[in-house]
Amino acid sequence: MGDAVKAVEGWVNNSKVLGRIAFLEVIDDLSLGVLTVVVKRSEVGPETWELVKKIKIGSAVRVEGVEPPEVVSRKGRELHALRVEVLAEPEEPLPVDVTGKTPAGLETRLEYRYVSLRLPAYRAIFVARARLARYTREYFEEKGFLEVHTPKLVGAGAEGGATLFRVDYFGGTAYLSQSPQLYKQMLMCGVPRVFEITPYFRAEKFDTPRHLNESWGVDAEMGFIRSHHDVMDILEGYVRHVSQRLDEEMGDELRRLGFRPLGKLGNIPRVTYREAIGIVEERGHRVEGEGGDLDTRAERILGEYMAEQGYDAYFIVDYPWEAKPFYIMREENGLSRSFDLDIRGTEIASGGQREHRRSVLYSNLVEKGLDPSSFKFYLEAFKYGMPPHGGFGLGFDRLLMKLLGLDNIREVVLFPRDRFHLVP
Fold first, then answer.
1. Do 55 and 158 reside in the same domain of the chain?
2. Which member of 63, 111, 131, 419 has the greatest number of CB atoms within 10 A?
3. Coil, strand or helix: which one is 374?
4. What region, left, alpha or beta, does residue 402 occupy, with left being phi > 0 and alpha being psi -120 to 50 degrees?
5. Do the Cβ atoms of 326 and 279 come closer than 8 Å?
6. What is the DSSP string of 323-363?
7. Residue 90 burial by CB count (10 A; 0-12/13-18/19+): exposed, middle or buried?
8. Per-residue model confidence as pLDDT tens digits over 264-314
9. Is 373 left (phi over 0), alpha (psi -120 to 50) or beta?
10. Does one domain contain both 80 and 134?
């Protein structure tokens, strides 16, 4: 046994006493696996031995011990204890089985997220989330983008008022931002490339596995572009970068813990909206409305078809302009310079080339039934040499959900906010 004494701190997830040896499973630090603490009666004092025999699952502990020259535990890490100190005991049985023998339902995990994080599989989700944020900054900084932080209290919405949360603002009305769209476009008048990791707020009565009322996104905007394909090139590079980095750093651990990670992505094909509709309808599903977003079933059918062709991710391009926001550039044929990015049958991002001509923007606002006076601050920026530009908004939570192979967006958000969840 080595001589160096090591101290670890964490929570007891399981305990077992076999004669004169006790085994504690401790989840420590940000580990994605438990540490097996071996306590031999002959190697600790009588007080420590009595404490370990009666220790409660869920206790917060500090353990001092030495690492053995050979690890016997199948869990992979082992420490032979010299001293065990209980720092805090649970006052009642834990609401989540941290031994992992009895899986908790989603609602229980959400209500007691702070306890479920003691289980390696649930902890792994949020380690992956933190790394995804790091990979995002890594990629955009390398591409010359400036990270910005736009207001979350705004006077007007990017897509009209129907989905805005109203806030009393010193007797007046403000809204929680549904998107940084207007601000990131305004910044194109002075900075060529910006990105933001940002919250979105949408006042819709969502009740699906992929929608939340408070969610996080990645927004990017870039100036001096030739077309929306320049934007798609950046977005494709981003998704391929983060999927590869996550697979390199966590892929093996995620698979060990039961996830179905996306893994490294190849090239991402670009399918026209008309082609997508044709594929879906050939498979027996009629898409309602002309030019609108694909419904959930249509997205799933298209995702299944693309998977059969060997693609987990794909762009849908050339939507009719009438179905797009006022700031998207219109083509002469009535189509738009826009795109969606879907992964495994779910829309992850939407974007395109923006209209940079102020007079056309004004007309677009009127045509979409919006009041140009509410957007005066935004239109002002288009007076001063606004270059051709474009960008996208990407659902950070949705992307993580797909990267991990999960089916419910609430799994990847610590404390999700939807119409049924406002606490904790």
1. no
2. 63
3. helix
4. alpha
5. no
6. GS-TTBPBPTTSBBSEEEEEETTEEEEEEEEBP--HHHHHH
7. middle
8. 999 999 999 999 999 999 999 988 766 667 888 999 999 999 999 999 999
9. alpha
10. no
Structure-token match 């199948």, residue found? 74
23 touches 33 (CB < 8 A) = no
CA–centroid distance for 50 within its chain = 45
The answer to whether position 205 is within a domain reads yes
Average pLDDT over residues 309-332: 95
Q: Judge whether 106 lies within some domain.
A: no
> pLDDT, tens digit, for every residue of 201-242?
999 988 899 999 999 999 999 999 999 999 999 999 999 999
Q: One-letter amino acid identity for 264?
A: K
Both tokens of residue 293? Answer: 């977003």
For the residues of 112-144, what is the DSSP string, one character each? THHHHTTSHHHHHHHHHHHHHHHHHHHHHHHTT
List active site positions.
202, 204, 210-211, 347, 350, 398
Query: Residue 144 belongs to what domain range?
Result: 120-412
**Does residue 56 share a domain with residue 17?**
yes
Contacts of 109 (CB under 8 A, 6+ apart): 96, 116, 122
Is residue 157 very low, low, confident or very high in pLDDT (cuts 50, 70, 90)? confident
